Protein: Probable cysteine desulfurase
Organism: Sunxiuqinia dokdonensis
Amino acid sequence: MTLDIARIRKDFPILDQQVYNKPLVYLDSAASSQKTLSVLKKEEQLHLEYYGNIHRGAHFLADQATGEFEAVRDLVKDFIHAGSREEIIFTKGTTESINLVAFSFGEAFVKPGDEIIVSEMEHHANIVPWQLMAKRKGARIVKLPFTDDGRLEVEKLDALINEKTRLMAVAHVSNTLGTINPVGEIIAKAHAKEVKVLVDGAQAVKHLPVDVQALDADFYVFSAHKMYGPNGVGILYGKKELLDQMPPYQGGGEMISEVTFENTTFNEVPYKFEAGTPHITGVIAFGEAIRYLQKLGIDRIAAYENELLAYATQKMLEIPNLVIYGTQPEKSGVITFNIEGIHPFDLGTMLDKMGIAVRTGRLCADPVMDHYGVQATIRVSFAVYNTFDEIDQFIVALKKLVVMLG
Ligand code: PMP
């Protein structure tokens, strides 16, 4: 059965509007996707019917909210095929998930002189937390490079790993190049030398089926707002045996077992890492986004988005002097490009005026920009609600602008 995209678009009412008197073409879902009506309705229902603080209230509303919140933990566990619900920690986003691991893993396992390997194609969120930790612990960051066509040089990994290497940080799907990295292979190589691996799945979970146990990932992180869910909610999956050995990231309510002024004992995972009142509304509504993805089927979504990607790529390559960064066959979701002689900000601004929302700039990936020696780029990204017709509108606009600005 193929996806009925016209029907799907009705689940995202925001898409049905005009901007600057032009039909909106939203090609910026890699930055943040739009949310399904079911997510928005769940948020409203919670606030109208049974909102209360979770885990603490001995009352009806709090019990109901707690039940739904904890049910989403099970849903996430099944969605990424984690082994147990204790391994699912709610955070405020991918960025916080990585900061949590960098801090707590660093405290538990990293000594002066140790090394962390970070791929060259990472988002800043998967670079800077490691640098902060390395500075604090006297450790060092080592780069795993990528080739000009956007392939991570995995064959160099064995030579980079030594007895000082503690962890490797790598994106499952690059937010700039779109490359789907062979994370299973990377993890196997790292584990052969007892190195742990954190996989940044922010761009992967909505496009690919993810099985953290099959991958054998030690940590897998992502954000709800990139997968049709609310913003302000992130996930950290971590193997329980590691989480158990890591100290808390933040202190406060819920993460404790007992507190005196002399000493505090900590709660079990996942609560040890969930200090304070979490984003109750966001997590509960996130459940609806996961149900939506499951209803459509990740495989079918992936197949459709791959068709959009291939179609857009082929049309864009017909435009003279257009350069695409990242041309791997194993690619998903995004096309980052420039047109020689035209400033990407000019192009982005003009596209916006024509109703087409794209991302311009350095895409939170300075090392990728430096790799290609460019100041800025333009990125279009696709979600299940985009259509071939929208891509045609984008290509027509691009061709017009090449004539105007070129
Ligand atoms: N990693 C990748 C690959 C991303 O694309 C993003 C979001 N652009 C992040 C991390 C950061 O996610 P968030 O802003 O939701 O914390």
